[in-house]
C-alpha cells in the first residue's frame, strides 16, 4: 500500500519503506560517532524491544538495551563506526562495518565483573540488524567476533 508520503509500505505491520533505515541511521549517529548520545539511543528502541548480543545474549527492554550500549561506550569511549554496507529489507535495516577505537574504559563482563582498560586500539568488523515497527526498533541483533576483540586487547592468545 502507498502511504501519504508516496512510499510503499504496510501500515498493518507498522512499517513504511525507509523507516527502518532512518531509525538505524539515528542509532548509528547516536552510538557510532564522536557525539555519544545515550538518550538518543534509547529513543530508537521500543519499550519492550529485545536485543541479541554476542557478549550478553538476549537483553529485554529499552532500559537494559540502553545499559548495554552505555557499557560498550564506556569500554571504547572514542569508538567510531565505519560503514561498509547498509541495506533495508522490508521492516529491517542491516549494517555491516567496523568499530574502531581505544579501550580506555572498563569492560563490563556478563557477570558484572569489570576488566580494567588495556589502552589498546581495536578495529572490529560487525553486523547489526534492526527490525522496526511504528518508528522504533523492536528486535535488534548485533554480531562481532568476541575472540578477535579479546585478542586485539591482549586478553586472549591469537589463534
Automatic annotation (TrEMBL):
GO terms for biological process: polyketide metabolic process. This is SnoaL-like domain-containing protein. It comes from Rhizocola hellebori. Gene3D superfamilies: 3.10.450.50. Residues 33-139 form the SnoaL-like domain. Signal peptide: none annotated.
Amino acid at each position: 500500500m502507498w502511504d501519504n508520503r508516496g512510499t510503499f509500505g504496510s501500515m498493518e505491520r507498522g512499517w513504511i519503506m525507509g523507516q527502518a533505515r532512518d531509525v538505524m541511521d539515528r542509532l548509528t549517529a547516536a552510538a557510532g560517532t564522536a557525539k555519544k548520545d545515550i538518550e538518543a539511543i534509547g529513543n530508537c528502541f521500543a519499550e519492550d524491544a529485545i536485543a541479541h548480543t554476542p557478549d550478553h545474549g538476549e537483553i529485554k527492554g529499552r532500559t537494559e538495551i540502553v545499559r548495554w550500549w552505555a557499557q560498550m561506550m564506556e569500554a571504547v569511549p572514542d569508538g567510531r563506526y565505519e560503514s561498509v554496507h547498509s541495506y533495508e529489507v522490508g521492516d529491517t535495516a542491516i549494517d555491516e562495518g567496523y568499530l574502531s577505537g581505544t579501550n580506555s574504559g572498563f569492560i563490563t563482563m556478563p557477570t558484572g565483573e569489570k576488566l580494567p582498560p588495556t589502552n589498546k586500539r581495536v578495529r572490529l568488523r560487525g553486523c547489526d540488524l534492526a527490525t522496526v515497527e511504528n518508528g522504533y526498533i523492536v528486535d535488534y541483533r548485533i554480531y562481532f567476533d568476541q575472540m578477535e576483540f579479546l585478542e586485539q586487547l591482549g586478553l586472549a592468545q591469537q589463534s
